[in-house]
Amino acid sequence: MTDTSASQGIPEPEGSSQIIETDYEIGQDNFETQIGPFGLDIHNPVFVVSGACIIAFVFYTLALPEQAGAAFSWMFSAVTQGFDWFFLSAANIFVLFCLLLIVLPVGSVRLGGAEAAPDYTYVGWFAMLFAAGMGIGLMFYGVSEPMSHFAASIGGTAAEGGARTDWAPLGAAAGDEQAAVRLAFASTIFHWGLHPWAIYAVVALALALFSYNKGLPLTIRSAFYPILGDRVWGWPGHVIDILAVFATLFGLATSLGFGATQANAGLNELFGVPIGSTTEVILISAITAVALISVVRGLDGGVKVLSEINMGLAALLLLFVLFAGPTIAILTGFVDYLAAYLTYLPALSNPIGREDTNFMQGWTSFYWAWWISWSPFVGMFIARVSRGRTVREFLICVLLIPSLVCVLWMSVFGGVAIQQVVQDGYTAAQEAPLELKLFKMLDALPLASITSFIGIILVIVFFVTSSDSGSLVIDTITAGGKVDAPVPQRVFWCIFEGAVAIVLLLSAGGLQSLQSMVISTGLPFTIVLLVMCVAIWKGLQAERRIL
User: What are phi and psi of 159, to 5 degrees?
Assistant: First the structure.
């Protein structure tokens, strides 16, 4: 099995590691052919079923947009209202599971074998992790989410027919600016801190462990071998991988939709580019074309280079806003907001008996489903670049450090925007649509045109790296775990990601359609992740016994 793994681009374990003995060979169910100059190496039936279903979905949405929009709206309400407790409970389990692995002896297990060395430096590793994991989201919500929670909290609660109709978290903070600020940032950190990164870490750890240590294909189904045995190579495994493809594709499409609307808003603000679906379609098409170039260049020549460039630009923009704004207040707030997060965390993560149903369902349930739908994509990408790390080092770096950076980002951008309202009476960012809040905040700072242009570039390049990375991951899944499948297959999935984002944006629901699909695909995949935790524990226990 190790020879086969190595021949398909997956390194053999170095040093002691418990290889799983199985007769399955990577790619044995694949269909290989040559169409002119293009080679194909696709898994049957995962590629066929995934591709056919997505094509059918695209045609259905285009042919019956009003009916599709109504269906998307119904799905969003049904899932967020009926399964909010399930999403919150599952996310809590993922956090506790990751924290437990950090402190237990199994944390000393090294991904890739006892003598494996890391493939990337910390700088390169972190750059790829952030660009793929949350880039577009941080740009879109860095100002808008703290500002939205602040406005809702200070406005207090409202009820009709005995039910809350406001969107404030928990019990709000009517008329109390300081309390509203702390509650707003606690809620924002809750959505961008430990919980989402724990979701990513679970999938990434499972993939890295069962591929690099156990010698199995780098695909989602491999993580279930301790539970399903050789049945994982049959239809149970096919279903798992197909769900992963759907979740990844719709999760990416949602992010690309957000990125397109924000880039459109920024271009309108700076250059008067018209706002509307036509411009957004052109943006998605153009950026998908750029992503295709990155896809052809591969992981090191494409994603890695773009990720490092984007991280440098993001750091510059962060430092500029920090020093152009009320620096001392922001840095003081960073510590205070962390304390507020820890204070409110038990109440925010409580899955039952909540009165703030709009916040819990419209914000938290959506976020958890979104992160879960991104988890196959981000998890596999993190696994690809994390070989050679111990489980403890891996979890600390993937779970704790990124959470702190997200807190810092939100504290700087959201903190400046709220200070503009509270201290200066500048309300343009508060009153602007979500996609425009970042640019309205930058308008009140020096060099607004330059920083806004950098913001647009960041959104676009995050867009490119997400599309590129997602194509790489979906291609690996639909190629049966092969990491060196023919490039035309990645090109196919890159084009499809853009197509799905365009179709959903053009449907009757627009961004709500994107949100509905990510919620719907995130629900069944949550069950997959919960079972995955059991498989990880079994796999780590076996590795620990041979050390």
Answer: -140, 155
Give pTM, 2 decimals.
Answer: 0.90
Query: For residue range 181-226, what is the model confidence (pLDDT) as tens digits?
Result: 999 999 999 999 999 999 999 999 999 999 999 988 888 999 999 9
The DSSP secondary-structure symbol of 31 reads E
Q: With CA atoms as reference, report the closest residue to 287 among 315, 259, 317.
A: 259
Structure token digits, residue 428: 């343009």
Find residue 40's DSSP bridge partners.
33
CA separation for the pair 150, 394 (Å, rounded)? 34
pLDDT tens string 140-179: 889 999 999 999 999 999 998 888 999 999 999 998 999 9
Tell me, what DSSP letter sits at residue 221?
A: G
Is the Cα torsion angle 244, 247, 251, 252 positive or negative in sign? positive
Pairing mode, if any, of strands 38-43 and 159-160?
A: unpaired
What is the C-alpha to C-alpha distance for residues 407 and 190, in angstroms, rounded to an integer? 9
**In Å, what is the CA distance from 337 to each residue of 27, 135, 140, 268, 403?**
49, 21, 20, 33, 13
- Determine whether 508 is exposed, middle or buried from the number of CB atoms within 10 Å of its CB (0-12, 13-18, 19+): middle
Nearest alpha-carbon partner for 97 in 224, 201, 244, 208? 201
